[in-house]
Design goal:
about 280 residues; mainly beta; OB fold (Dihydrolipoamide Acetyltransferase, E2P); 3 helices; elongated
Length: about 280
């Protein structure tokens, strides 16, 4: 059976009045309606298609690429709210259904929400849920400190932002480690800063510890070159001023500056940093 909510590479078996019938190597079939039929094709050609249920709950194929697929998180717009739940635009003709029981708070038409797409075992339908934490598990971590990971920004907290790590774990990005504008649904690269015995994970958008010295030193060097060899920053500059100019923490700045000074690439004076002429 073809998995609903996934991409499949299928073979064109026959051309019929409603469209092309495609099949996999096990003989399972699905219809690709005429509106998605390629302009030119031959029987036995292969097509990559997405399989989902149409308005009559029948499996159907499409060449459109949805914004999110089965077992993935997506930041989607609510386009309709009815007495049974909300419907999200996920890039396909039939909208993604989010029942009220799967909503953290009642969704409103026109707003965007971070949702997880799963297969409802009772109905066999693809369903969305904004209760994203229910689909994350920190009981067995698959990451380790200093590892580069994929992040999805989830929601703000008093400490910073909850994030989704590699679409598997929940982590925390502290506000003191954020030097760029971020919002829910953003997908970013990050690094594991710390894992705790209770399974909690701290992440950062900069390489943590000693691993952050080299790239930040290069960033500081590049900024000096762009500014004609002088920057009016010192180790006494405020964290806000450093963040505004270099988009890094004061701690990272001091490490980077120390690295360049040891490499004899800069001079440090009372009014700022000077690039040495090599």
């Amino acid at each position: 059976m073809l998995t609903i909510g996934e991409y499949h590479t299928l073979t064109i078996d026959r051309d019929t009045e409603p469209g092309l019938f495609l099949k996999d190597h096990e003989g399972n079939e699905v219809l690709l309606p005429n509106k998605y039929k390629p302009e030119s094709f031959n029987l036995e050609d292969e097509l990559e298609v997405f399989v989902y249920l149409d308005h009559e709950e029948r499996p159907v194929a499409t060449t459109l690429r949805p914004f999110v697929k089965l077992d993935e998180f997506g930041y989607l717009k609510c386009v309709e709210v009815t007495d049974i739940g909300a419907f999200m635009d996920w890039g396909l003709e039939k909208h993604l259904f989010v029942p009220f029981k799967e909503q953290v708070s009642k969704m409103r038409k026109g707003d965007r929400y971070l949702v997880f797409v799963y297969l409802d075992e009772l109905t066999g339908r693809l369903v969305g849920s904004s209760k994203v934490n229910n689909f994350l598990d920190n009981s067995e971590l698959t990451i380790q400190p200093f590892e580069e990971v994929d992040l999805i920004i989830s929601n703000p907290t008093e400490l910073g932002w909850n994030v989704i790590i590699n679409e598997l774990h929940q982590g925390l990005l502290y506000k003191d480690d954020v030097f760029v504008n971020i919002q829910t649904g953003d997908k970013l690269k990050g690094w594991i800063k710390k894992t705790r015995p209770d399974g909690k994970i701290d992440v950062t958008l900069q390489r943590p510890g000693y691993r952050s010295i080299e790239p930040n030193a290069q960033e500081l060097l590049t900024e000096l070159e762009l500014k004609g060899g002088f920057l009016g920053l010192t180790d006494k500059s405020s964290p806000e001023e450093i963040q505004k100019i270099l988009h890094m923490s004061k701690k990272s700045f001091k490490r980077a500056l120390g690295t360049l000074y040891k490499q004899r690439k800069v001079d440090i004076k009372e009014n700022g940093i000077y690039l040495k002429n090599e």
